[in-house]
Amino acid sequence: MRTFLRCMAVLVVVLVLAAAGVYWFVSSRSFSAREPPLAFEAFIARNLRHLATPPGARAMTNPLTLSPVEMAAARDHFADHCALCHNNNGDGKTMINAGLYPPAPDLRQSRTQELSDGELFFIIKHGIRFTGMPGWDGEDNEHWELGAFIRHLPALPAEDLEAMEHINGLVTVPNKKGETHHHGEKP
Question: Is the whole-model pTM more than 0.90?
Fold first, then answer.
């Protein structure tokens, strides 16, 4: 019985210390989206999308092979619905994304491009809780088409960017450092 009481006392002390640590952390830092995250916060945010996708969805493959016309329709859909946060070229450098935490990822980078077709589909359809990524209504084919377009982003031709700019007005302009900003934004 004494061993049990000692274990309980140690557990209570550990819980009180942990609660005090959490209280100190929360009271000494804000949860502002403008404040750079700590390393463990960034790690958790990056892994949320993986945790949010059921294992069965990861094994799914895109059932569609898009024609050039269908790919153009997916591009236009992306420009109309996704580029506000992800940017036309997928780099995520938008005014909206600057205020999000976790920020929308650069869809051209390996962390996104290495996701399975099923993961992309699931994220587009269902969103990711506790992030700015909403789930989208619509037909499943639309979600598969967007997934195929996301795969296309790393090699997006200038003509596609121009077409997207006509749809949404987001003009991606490189600055002197090669970084992008948008017409109307300060670099």
Answer: no
